[in-house]
Please model this.
Amino acid sequence: MPSSYKRLLLKVSGEGVARKGETGLDVERVSALAEQLKQLISEGTQIACVIGGGNILRGAQSEGLGIARATADYMGMLATVINGLALCDSLEAHGVPTRVMSAIEVDKVCEPFIRRRALRHMEKGRVIVLAGGLGSPYFTTDTAAAQRAVELDCDVLLKATMVDGVFDADPREHPTATLLPDLTFTEVLDRRLKVMDQTAFALCRENDLPLVVFNMECPDGVVRAAAGENVGTLIHN
Model:
């Protein structure tokens, strides 16, 4: 299944690299993701990956923890560095050259994010794992993914989640909710469907960046989404 896209950005939630319902890292899930990225790289696809940190800490949890929101957001950025290093190590164990680039300064373990350097890495067949969000509090990793995808001239943003795509209602609360396989950005807004935060969604819409929302637990889901298969929901102009 060759990829339909020359260059893509994959957004993986922190929950996607943890055991279901648990926190911390699941090395088997990380390895399974690395295997799929290896297949795409072998086909010549250029890949950037933004990884969340929700399996360790979410900035939005700050209120319940008694931590200032900005401080919690920085803690969450450091959590994405931990996840990024784990994915990098797994990819290189699979023979895939990888670079972790961070929006916050952690130069002992990551390169700083520099756009031209990131593009050069991808052109040389390296996966770039983008950690640290955007380096500023109050921005989600969804927004970081949309920003980097536009900045790096990606053809698509693949959003790997723990649900099968976009539904007409929350499937966890409404068992009869219907999966919507194809939507326009305008339809998402008109129907008030929740896909990602508003800043991230606006970036995709304004820059004509197609978005595919799919379940990370779907067998070979990343490869199939990259191949343009009918997995999840495609959102476009």
In short: The CA atoms of residues 103 and 135 lie 5 Å apart. The radius of gyration is 17 Å.
